[in-house]
Amino acid sequence: MTLKPWFLLPLLLVSVQGVEYPPSDFIYMIGATHWGFWGETQVCENGSYVYGLELKVEEDQGNFNDDSALNEIKLFCRSTEGDHTGEVTSSVGEKGIYTGAYHCPGGFMNGFDLKMEAEHNRGDNTAANGVRAYCTSGGDPVEPPGGEWGDWLAEQQFPPGPSKCHSNMVVCGLMTLVQENQGSLHDDTALNDVKFLCCHLPE
Questions:
Q1: Where is the signal peptide, in residue numbers (predicted)?
Q2: Domain count along the chain
Q3: Is the pLDDT of residue 18 over 90?
Q4: Are the C-beta atoms of 124 and 67 separated by less than 8 Å?
Q5: Based on CB atoms within 10 Å of each CB, which residue in 37, 40, 47, 150 is the most buried?
Q6: Rounded to whole angstroms, how far apart are CA atoms 195 and 112?
Q7: Is residue 5 part of a domain?
Q8: 50 touches 75 (CB < 8 A)
Q9: Residue 186 class from Cβ within 10 Å (0-12 exposed, 13-18 middle, 19+ buried)?
Q10: CA–CA separation, 67 vs 69, rounded Å?
Q11: pLDDT (tens digit, 9 = 90+) per residue, 96-155?
């Protein structure tokens, strides 16, 4: 799956710390749920790129209790020289625990797949449940432990497959769609969707 057409994204440049990013630099998956509000785009320190990620997930709360599954995506950044330069997140949910950091075996993240429970009317939607990160080093995707509900969206794309940056670009940031806490006796879904920003690697 390559970059999606620009006209399917908001028709505005995204400005982060004075740098403007066109919508065509973002990758995303078709089929995510839509509850909540988009957070600000957060980007790795200049000259660094994403090489790993960690998820915050609310575990199964048991029968008759509300589940929200994926609450946060944290990205780890490093320079092309291999120096860790920090972490970035966008909007986050309040619940869950971190399930451990997972890193590309080499290179940087250049694509992803999203595990999603489709909207239903059974009373407890969980929305996004997991993320698989694809790396420039190739091989199997990196998959931190996530929620137990839903299906991977890659097989539902046209053509099927993960969403990937252009060949000369890698992931350098993200923005997330998160539903705020709905309070007791209401259905929380927390993180619903994510768009990853792709940046050019230096020649």
A1: 1-18
A2: 1
A3: no
A4: yes
A5: 150
A6: 10
A7: no
A8: yes
A9: exposed
A10: 6
A11: 999 999 999 999 999 999 999 987 776 678 889 999 999 999 999 999 999 899 999 999
H-run or E-run covering 38: strand 37-38
d(CA 170, CA 11): 22
The neighbour count for residue 74, using CB atoms within 10 Å, is 18
- 13: number of CA atoms within 13 Å, CB side? 7
Q: Give the number of other Cβ atoms within 10 Å of residue 1's Cβ.
A: 20
Task: Name the strand (E) or helix (H) holding 74.
Answer: strand 70-79
Query: Which tokens belong to 79?
Result: 């320079």
Q: Give the N- to C-terminal CA distance of the chain in Å, as an integer.
A: 24
Instruction: Estimate to the nearest angstrom the gap between the alpha carbon of 43 and the chain centroid.
Output: 13
Task: Give the pLDDT score at 3.
Answer: 43
Contact of 163 with 27, CB cutoff 8 Å: yes
